[in-house]
Amino acid sequence: MTYSEIAKDKFEKLKNKKDVLILSIESSCDETSVAIVKNGREVLSNIIASQIEIHRRFGGVVPEVASRNHITAISNIFEEALKEANVKKDDLDAIAVTYGAGLMGALLVGVNFAKALAYSLSLPLIAVSHVYGHISANYISHKELVPPFSCLMVSGGHSAILQVDDYCKFRLVGSTVDDAVGECFDKVARVLGLPYPGGPEIDKLAKSGKNEYNFTVSNSLKHTFNFSFSGIKTAVVNFVHNKEQKGETFDKANVACSFQEAVTEELCEKAVRACQEGGTGKLVVAGGVGANSRLKEKLQTACEEKGISFYAPVLRYCTDNAAMIGSAGYYMMKNGLGFAGLDLTAKPNVDL
Ligand code: KG4
Ligand code: ZN
């Protein structure tokens, strides 16, 4: 039998296997991560090598630098993941990998490592979308969570509201018409002179600030579930530049707080309204911006008021990690989806 025939046969048989051990790989941006996940929800290991310190001096991720660092990191991370999980290569049932969206060169490192591993171990390969991974991070943190639910997906690349009807069935309810919200956090942080990545820095600084500047989110999309954040981003950037040009002082913490209040209010109002309309009674947040403490606080309060159950992944599964890819890969396999051949390639853009 050829590799393809063996892999397909194993993939089909996995659907009915009681315990499934998936080794998953994530390399879409600046984190090299390998995890071992049992039955989609139990994380045996989740090793993450972050390149944040490397990219910090450039003020953002440099794609070529990210790819090169993934290459040097991935083999060791793989060995570490097996060791920490106390699992042997022969115990694995499948390899799952992020194939997109993300930086092309960075993704290719993970995809090619996954292909080589799948081929050498005669295991099926499962191609996972990064966004689907972020949503699935919630299955790891909340063992009782099952679809259907509404999801606010907020990261460096996405701002969207999805209706998750089943594990592998989504409907896009709304999305950004311009910038992703994480991008705006990073840009505002940069103009305030805060290090990369800016989101956590704004979150921290805003705690000591007051909401005293009137930064607002455009209300042209008020009655929709779509987002536009480029206006508020530009307003903050112009505000800071004006002050600097005039030699006037301003309180950075107040800027961070005012910006964060406006953005989180917009995200919260639309996500909760979409959840009420969706009628599932469950709202899930996913993606790096889901780590924002003020956003979670607002979502929690609003959901309590409306009788909605609110879910957020624990911090380490909010930002990029391979465990979430292992969880998503498991549910894709159970639904007969994601089986990939050795011709799998990376995709910088993937439809939500
Ligand atoms: O999901 P993620 O790790 O990568 C992408 O798929 O994009 O998200 C990264 C984004 C960055 O823009 C980062 O600044 C933002 O998530 N982020 C936060 C926080 N932690 C990470 N934004 C606001 N508050 C945070 N605490
Ligand atoms: Zn991500």
Report on the structure:
With 352 residues, the protein is α/β, with parallel strands linked by helices. It folds into two domains: 3-137 and 319-340, ATPase, nucleotide binding domain (Nucleotidyltransferase, domain 5); 147-313, Nucleotidyltransferase, domain 5. Helix content is 47%, strand content 19%. The chain is built from twelve helices and eleven strands. It has helices at residues 3-14, 52-56, 63-85, 104-121, 130-141, 181-191, 198-206, 230-246, 252-278, 293-306, 315-318, 323-334; strands at residues 21-26, 31-38, 42-50, 94-100, 125-129, 149-154, 159-166, 169-175, 282-286, 309-311, 339-340. The strands form two sheets. It has a six-stranded mixed sheet with strand order 3-2-1-4-5-11, with helices on both faces. Strands 8-7-6-9-10 form a five-stranded mixed sheet, with helices on both faces. Helix 6 (181-191) packs antiparallel against helix 9 (252-278). The longest helix has 27 residues, at 252-278. The two termini are 36 Å apart. The mean pLDDT is 97. Zinc ion is lined by residues 130, 134, 155, 287-288, 320.
